[in-house]
């Protein structure tokens, strides 16, 4: 597939991440958990909770070949949209678009699951059921501890991509997102050789609409939307996916523990990638207040830097902190 850039299109290319996209993509685990080994601990934890939800519908939001209707993942209108705001946008989907997107994802009329086929006969009620099911799924299975940890991986990915762009330029940025992507003569090429099913189009002009690049923990490789008439979007595998299933690293350096104490040594090791106080507290299973005290000491000692984005402050190791960990 070829994404054709005109003058100015590169300047409007941006990154974002979408909690709604990741919630919908996480349903792929229900179809094929073996493809997502890093999510198995989470999947084991939520299995009992799934029985309390609209499991029939949630399972049907992903086709057996893991395609998802485009309308379930509206392109983010800012870098870090809130799940509730995205759900409102989903709820405003026109009925004809809902019908077309589900049929495009399932490809054939006789492939539609019964719950979808019945629902599309009354699209307004069906859309309301989809929104309600996703909202319950989010608050029951994702928001409490899964999303904060996943969000820290997304933030780290965006920070890494910004450094690559600043230091190496757009060509290196695109090529580093995924092996399927390459930047050739001012055009972005997406290889489809290993797609499970071939997408129904081969090229797209950005044409002033802006290209949005979205990291995901459920993308096995870079992929576009199904419908080429939608604003251009490429979803790519987020860096650091393996850390989702990791326990906090053990502190093995005796000298580091004696110098800093075990809690601060562990925090310093965790902060190889940026994270917020809340994210670190989730990973360590302690209170944000306890983490905040240790972060302040490490920051005052010059071992951490911090950046603010709205109300969220993220910490990362400084060069001195890296040297100390080594």
Automatic annotation (TrEMBL):
Database matches in PROSITE patterns? HTH_ARSR_2
Q: Which domain of life is it from?
A: Bacteria
Query: Which InterPro entries does its entry note?
Result: ArsR-like_HTH (IPR011991), HTH_ArsR_DNA-bd_dom (IPR001845), Metal_resp_trans_reg (IPR051011), WH-like_DNA-bd_sf (IPR036388), WH_DNA-bd_sf (IPR036390)
**Chain ranges of the HTH arsR-type domain:** 244-326
A Gene Ontology MF term for this entry? DNA binding
| Keywords from the UniProt entry | DNA-binding, Transcription, Transcription regulation
Q: Which PANTHER family match?
A: ARSENICAL RESISTANCE OPERON REPRESSOR ARSR-RELATED, HTH-TYPE TRANSCRIPTIONAL REGULATOR KMTR
Name recorded for this polypeptide: Transcriptional regulator
